[in-house]
Design brief:
This protein is mainly beta. It contains no helices and seven strands. The protein has a four-stranded antiparallel β-sheet with strand order 2-5-7-6, with no helix packed on it. Strands 1-4-3 form a three-stranded antiparallel β-sheet, with no helix packed on it.
């Protein structure tokens, strides 16, 4: 099976469900045209499933079982957010 890099636009919210192919490898989160997007390495033929991501602002509490994905800034750096994935992100 061949792999491909896909982009997933993110809304800024505490918990963000994202449907993507199973076993997708999360690569980075960055802004594109001022909007946060997640890029992942995926197998396009794989069945899709929903993964739950958490966006946390700097200084806010983070659950222990979350895995760090990346950081992005909005409003010229006035707002800094950190993207995580893990079981606690579902809650």
């Amino acid at each position: 099976m061949s792999l491909s890099v896909w982009k997933f636009p993110l809304r800024v919210d505490d918990v963000v469900p994202v449907e993507m192919p199973e076993d997708a490898k999360l690569l980075t989160v960055q802004l594109q045209r001022g909007e946060p997007c997640l890029w992942a390495l995926v197998c396009p033929e794989a069945p899709k499933r929903t993964r739950f991501l958490r966006i946390v602002g700097t200084g806010h509490p983070v659950e222990d079982d979350l895995l760090y994905v990346g950081t992005f800034q909005l409003q010229n750096g006035a707002l800094v957010f950190h993207l995580f994935e893990g079981q606690a992100a579902r809650e």
